[in-house]
Each structure stands twice: as structure tokens, then as C-alpha cells.
Amino acid sequence: MTSSYCRSFFLLLSLFLSYNTFARGGNFNTDFDLLFGDDRVDIKEEGKIMSLALDKYSGSGVISKNEYLFGRFDMQIKLVPGNSAGTVTAYYLSSQGSHHDEIDIEFLGNLSGDPYLLSTNVYANGNGGREMQYYLWFDPTEDYHTYSIDWNSERIIILVDNKPIRVMRNRKDIGVSFPTTQPMRIYTTLWNGDSWATRWGQVKLDLSNAPFIAGFKNFNANSCIASPRTDCKGFNGGQNKGLDGESKQILKNVLSKWVVYNYCRDFRRYAHGLPYECRKENVKPIV
């Protein structure tokens, strides 16, 4: 082995070790702990498949053993069928404390025949209020679909079946907080949110339909596991730092056809001025 080859080998090895990545093909048995719900969390097929249940006594959920700082997180989910009003199925990243960071994907149940709402939000330094909500172009109760969070220090991309539905860029240049420093754990939960989830809380959970059950499989995290020895600063878990031309067009179509609520268009809520990143002079092109 030549000296130049040795140097290259050890350089590549050091770069590999500097990113303590979580291997593809996660396992619910080994990668998550019970959060609440006891045996309402049902893990099968050696950790490859999980279901969560909600009944009159409790919902259920799990939390990742590891904390992550940047990466791409994929989960295939099959939502509660039938009358799911009042239920909230959530898949999100969050740190701890009053100044926490958080990236949310939440599914708000509805009456039979009405579509689910997919609600997204981002918290940074304890500040949220960045909701965007969507209808889906398919029935999410009939089969599993892949929902993804792709997060690095420059932007967050939320995807459905690998189609981008939201991009939020780091706008610290105009004083807007962005999650860049706090490691976050993965939460997957099913719970009773009927005080607000369906028609602003007007429709309550019908416990005659309990237990409500949602399915999860093929969890995957290509991400940087945060630790005192790991520098996650430059880690990017996605295939691209931005969007290619086709993905940009898909995003534009989603934004034009499927958005139900956009905080940047809520002139009643922000009667005295939209958030800085929403103002015309601060809006940047999709990247």
C-alpha cells in the first residue's frame, strides 16, 4: 500500500467516522422506545412493522432512542380508516425544552367520506406558527404511503411519496429562527386531538369506532446521530441540497392545487404584518 493511497484511505475513513450515520432500514424494536400506550403499540415481523392504537383509555406512541442533527427521515404510514374525526396521527422531530425546535407532519382525521388534512409546521427556538395544511391526491387509508422530512442547515423539505410539498429555507439573514443547533428525536404517535383537530374541534372522537389503528413500516433514517464526538454541521441526509427542475414543477403543482392553509396568506391572523419570511421583499425563488 503506497503512502499516498494510505493517506487517501485514512482520509476517507475519518470522513466516514465523523458522520455517525444511522443505517438504512430502521427497526422499531431496536431504534425506538415506548413513549406511551403500553400494549397499544404493536410491533411485528422482527421490528419491521408497527401499529399504534387509540381507545377510550389512551393513545400510543414511540420515541427514537437516538437524537439526530440533520438527515432524511422516511416512514410509510397507513392512516386510520373510516370515521377518524378527532384523531391525530403524528410523525415528527422535536428537541426538548421551552425553546425547542420541531418539524411536524400531522394527519388530522375527519368524518367518513371527508379527506384527511396533512398539517405541517416548523418550530425554531420555541417559536412555531408556520403551519401549512394540504389535502392529499389519494386516500391515505387504503394503502401505505411514504412521508419524509429532509433537513439540513440550509433548508427543510417535506415530501409525500418522494414528491416535495413544502420547502422552508433558512432565513437567519433576515432574523428568522431556523432549527440548526438542537438535536431532535423522532416521535410517532396516535392520540385524541378532538379539542381542535377536526373542524376546529366541532367534531369529537366517536369512541364507538374504537380502537382506531394506524400502521407504520419501512422506517428509514439517513442521518447524523448527535453525540459529543460527532460533528453533524455539514451533514446532508438527502440526495440533493435543493430540488431539480422536475421536483420544482411538482412542488409548484402541489402548492397551486392542494394547499388548504398557508400561514403566509393568513392576513387575518397577521393583520399587522405578515412574518418576515412571507413578505414580498423577502421571498426567494424555490431552490
SSE topology:
Elements: H1 3-18, H2 28-31, E1 32-36, E2 41-44, E3 49-54, E4 60-64, E5 68-78, E6 87-94, E7 102-108, E8 117-123, E9 132-134, E10 145-151, E11 155-160, E12 163-169, E13 185-192, E14 212-225, H3 245-257, E15 259-262
Antiparallel strand pairs: 1-4, 2-3, 3-14, 4-13, 5-10, 5-14, 6-7, 6-13, 7-8, 8-9, 9-15, 10-11, 11-12
* Lateral strand order in the biggest sheet: 1-4-13-6-7-8-9-15
Q: What are the low-pLDDT stretches, counting only 5+ consecutive residues below 50? A: 8-19
The end-to-end span amounts to 43 Å
Q: Main beta sheet: strand number and arrangement?
A: 8 strands, antiparallel
Written account of the structure:
There is one protein chain. The longest helix is centred in the N-terminal third of the chain and has 16 residues, at 3-18. With 287 residues, this protein is mostly beta strands. A hairpin with a 2-residue loop joins strand 11 (155-160) and strand 12 (163-169). The chain contains three helices and 15 strands. Helices cover 11% and strands 36% of the residues. It is globular, with a radius of gyration of 20 Å. The protein starts with a helix and ends in a 25-residue tail after the last strand.
